[in-house]
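Students often ask why inverse folding is considered easier than folding. One informal answer: many sequences map to the same fold, so there is more than one right answer. In these notes we will look at a single instance of the problem. The structure comes first.
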């Protein structure tokens, strides 16, 4: 018993003499050596601090009248330039886009002109493409469908009555949060691109103009 007490006293004395900073440095060295012994399983293509999200494709999904939706796909997480290029080249990704173009019009009875953007978003959300990409935006597409959103609005004096298809101002659209979280959980929301402010929404599909001629962008 006395021997154990003596050894404990000696340990306390040594620890006090060495000091807490020396012990901390010793622990850092030991942990560093331990980590060096563990092989790094990170793919060299992903081994960089320079990562960002990137748009993979704008997929035009239209019916026989050339009306429908433009689906914007982006990487699910920030990636390196090398990984981004690899994702874009994957045969399965391109095949998935082509399959979506074929199957979506069939699902909606060949009529995407009248298809609701929330119904379409839910369908596309459930349509498998690749685990490394997700939907970033959905916009209405096609002149007839876009023109739904530059009709006369009796509650908006001086409202726009034509659309500049380059800016898409007034077009109905959804953002990533709408598509990947809100709508799959039973919500319905409608947004109107570059109209007064980007947070402007409605809970029904308002097929009329949401901006004035004075607010028009060129």
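Output (designed amino acids):
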């Amino acid at each position: 018993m006395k021997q154990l007490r003596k050894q404990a006293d000696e340990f306390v004395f040594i620890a006090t003499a060495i000091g807490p900073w020396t012990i901390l440095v010793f622990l850092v060295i030991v942990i560093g050596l331990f980590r060096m012994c563990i092989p790094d399983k990170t793919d060299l293509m992903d081994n960089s601090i320079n990562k960002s999200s990137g748009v993979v494709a704008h997929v035009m999904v239209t019916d026989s009248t050339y009306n429908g939706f433009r689906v914007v796909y982006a990487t699910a997480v920030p990636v390196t330039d090398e990984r981004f290029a690899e994702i874009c080249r994957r045969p399965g990704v391109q095949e998935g886009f082509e399959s979506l173009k074929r199957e979506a019009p069939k699902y909606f009875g060949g009529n995407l002109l009248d298809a609701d953007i929330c119904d379409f978003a839910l369908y596309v959300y459930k349509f498998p493409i690749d685990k490394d990409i997700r939907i970033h935006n959905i916009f209405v597409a096609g002149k007839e469908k876009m023109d739904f959103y530059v009709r006369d609005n009796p509650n908006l004096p001086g409202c726009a009555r034509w659309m500049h298809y380059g800016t898409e101002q007034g077009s109905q659209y959804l953002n990533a949060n709408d598509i990947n979280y809100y709508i799959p959980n039973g919500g319905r929301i409608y947004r109107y691109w570059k109209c007064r402010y980007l947070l402007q929404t409605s809970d029904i599909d308002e097929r009329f103009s949401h901006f004035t001629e004075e607010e028009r962008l060129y």
